[in-house]
Amino acid sequence: MLDRELKKGSAELLILSLVEDRPRHGYDIGQLIELRSRGVLRFNVASLYPLLYRLEKRGWIRGRWVEKAGQRRRRYYRLTPIGKRVLAAQRDGWQEFVGAINRITGIAHA
Amino acid sequence: MPDFKEEIRKRVATLHLSPTREAEIVEELSQHLEEQCEEAISRGVSEEEANRAALADLADCEILARELKRFRNKHKPLVIGNERGMWLSDLVQDLRYGLRMIAKTPAVSAIAIIALALGIGANTAIFSVVNTVLLRPLPFNQPDQLVMVWENATHLGFPKDTPSPANFLDWRQQNHVFSAMAALAPQSFNLTGVGEPERLDGRRVSANLFDLLGVRPLLGRTFLEEEDKPGTKVVLLSEGLWRRRFGADPSVVGRGLALNGQSYTVVGVLPRTAQLPNQENTRDQLWVPMAFPNEEATQRGNHFLDVMARLEPGISLKQAQADMDTVMAALAREYPDFNARRGAVVTPLHEQAVGAIRPALLILLGAVAFVLLIACANVANLLLARAAARQKEIALRLALGASRSRMIRQFLTESVLLALLGGSVGLIFSLGGLSILKRFVPPDISLASGIAIDAKVLLFTLAVSLLTGLVFGLAPAFHAVHSNLNETLKESGRDAAAGARGNRLRNILIVAEVAVSFILLIGAGLLINSFMHLRNLNPGFRVDHLLTVKVELSETKYPDTEHRAAFFNELTRKVQNLPGVESVAVGNNLPFTYNGDSMSIAVEGIPDPPPDQWPDVVYRVIGPSYFKTMGIPFVAGRDFTEQDNAQDQLVVIVTEKTARHYWSGQSPIGKRLKPGSTSSQSPWRVVVGVVKDVRQNDFVAEPKMQMYMPYAQARSPANALLVRTKVDPLSLAIPVRNQIWEIDKDQPVSDVQTMEEIVTNAVARQRFSMLLLGVFGGLALVLAAVGIYGVMSYSVAQRTREIGIRMALGAQRSDVLKMTVGQGLRLVLTGVAIGLAAAFVLTRVMATLLFGVSPTDPLTFVSISIVLIGVAALASYIPALRATRVDPMFALRYE
Questions:
Q1: ipTM score assigned to the predicted complex
Q2: Helix or strand holding residue B173 (H, E)
Q3: For residue B57, which residues of chain A lie inside 8 Å, CB to CB?
Q4: Distance of alpha carbon B346 from alpha carbon B344, whole angstroms
């Protein structure tokens, strides 16, 4: 389990990545994080939704209620154009950060 | 499965989110938890276990609450389309909505509109006076360059003394700051030969006066420089005279006119705007050149001129004053006998024209602003009550996603609409008010005739209306939109607005309203009080049953004292015989109609004082029976008789004050005095009588030293007839005039008026301020009473149930009455206390308007407090009485 601060810092990047190619609802996002991290990362309701709302408020994602036949309506979040730029920037930043950590820790092991 | 919704709701309730937002969050989160449970159960977890896990997720509610806090109240609804494009359609919608709301509660709207109309109307009316009198520039060329120049004789009690001809001529020569300087002096003329004989007010003026002012003649020309010398008989007519007596005949230029028995040639006609902004000259009908005769041009001790000047471009008032100080200092060294301690004062012409009325007008402007504030408070209260009734509707609209700012805009649109309606009605009020007001404008404000509602006034009214709408609309708007929606939606309709916050706001408004009314009423009370003092002032003579007529004898027809005496002797005899006449007398310059006629005197046996300390003695020239007719009591000695004529010993009657000054402790009878100094050529006059002091030139100021001389022995001719009557004095106006025309059919008769009218005119300015402030005070009182009544009625209606319960539990009617009236009185007393403190400070600015009353006159303060508290008590008593009629059963069932 990662430290809470680290989780929080990278959580934005996770969510933005997940809604990049298609809109997803909150439960879906939560599930995907848990699934793809193979259970290492898990967001509960109390932490996931405030994060979604915060991103929405910044204009990076936008939520819309969508009704599908035979289902109850759900709120789907999609990436906005601003969100796309933010995601690209954060991805670069993250890769730089991870690369740096790798280099340092790699040298230390050598 | 547990009700997740309820669980979530519990956790976000403390955040006070907007209801829509809250509902969305609850829906989204509960869905998530439900799906989580379902999924767990499908994996084979027991239902209890799944539920517990889901709820555990929620357990970290501290985070949820903290994270969601940022979203509180900030949620914006989805905007479809271009936001800017919606602005106009929003406005149209708001306007429509506002109109619908106004029409929906016609009674409330009507009361609000009338209250606003009264407030805005009063403001418009007073502003149009201020605009005309204080703000509008004088109708002359570059009026800010125009000044008046006075002699400063403060040591004699004349800080602005009229300059003497010799000083004026020297000023004109020696100054370096004026591009032109002109002198004026009043003169009246008897016009004969054109229909009925008439006495006309006019003026001798320097030939350059009209060039200096920049007045162009309507016809002909103004005076030429070479006409400004003795012997030129040319005259300029006023537009009014030209229309009235000459039927606007354009060929009047070049025509001959008989004035004072001499022939003058008309050289031009001047437009109305030539009327000079100075006292008593608004009636100027003609002008002749100043043309100082030689003996006049050298007079330095004879002060009778008004002097106007135009500043050179770029010269400031200060520089002009400095230059005139230098000039006058030199003249004081050169002619110490006349000019010692005399200075020169330069004042803007505009100040001269309006200075006297300015404080009164500014105070009135302040007063109407107060009236408007009270009206605003009233309307705000009305709207608060109405908003309260609409609380449910507002809550519902907010819940359905209307934004608060939009709701506020809608409220403000409505209140501004109300204010504009009020402003329009107010404009109509002000038109009516102005026509009444004009009648009371003191005659010495010469610009008052031009009072009208012009574009500037309309703009002012519009601005005031808009501002008013915002002022009284903001409080109810914010109040309505910022109450707790859930509470509101849950509460029953009737009590919806009964929130403590609403009541507090209403109470504050009432307290403010009472405080402001109190200040206004104190102002009005003080002025009414001073006016009473003024009217009760004993002028020293009997004002009632006294008819006065101006009879200005022509100098060519009656060239000397004998001719004039003969005319007046015959006239008094004839008038004395008319039925209803008690006594008749003649005199010159009736009290309060003329501000001059004073001289310095030498008294036998008393050394002449140094020239700069020579006191002035006001004198009047009168005929026999003057004191009897005027009702001035004798202290000692005798009245003049027909024997006191040119052949006999010269005599004089002095007033008590003069007697005390010169012969303190002795009898003045038989003592001698003469005009000028002991060494002057004038013969001595014997004091034959002492009379009581009379207010002669100024109704308000303490009487100065005075003396009377018989007209048969004086150079200045008598010009007024006084008739003491047993009947209504005006009923004798026509018989008296006929008697004059029986003696001389060409003799002009003018200014037929009663002494009461003269005294009324003398206090016109005071009456103007008093009446207006009185009206505004009354208006404030009515508005405040209506406001208190409204709030108390509302509060009683709100508390119907509570009162019902109290009565059901055994409260007596008197208890309920005490409780409700007590509630109203508490507000009123708070308001009065605040008003008292404020008035104590504010009334000081009125000090100059007051007479015989201190700005903190305890009697006024106490009586106004009693009146206001009484009215307020009544205004809360009536609703209270209604409260006691509540049937407990009905009140309880009413829920």
A1: 0.84
A2: helix B165-174
A3: 44-46
A4: 7
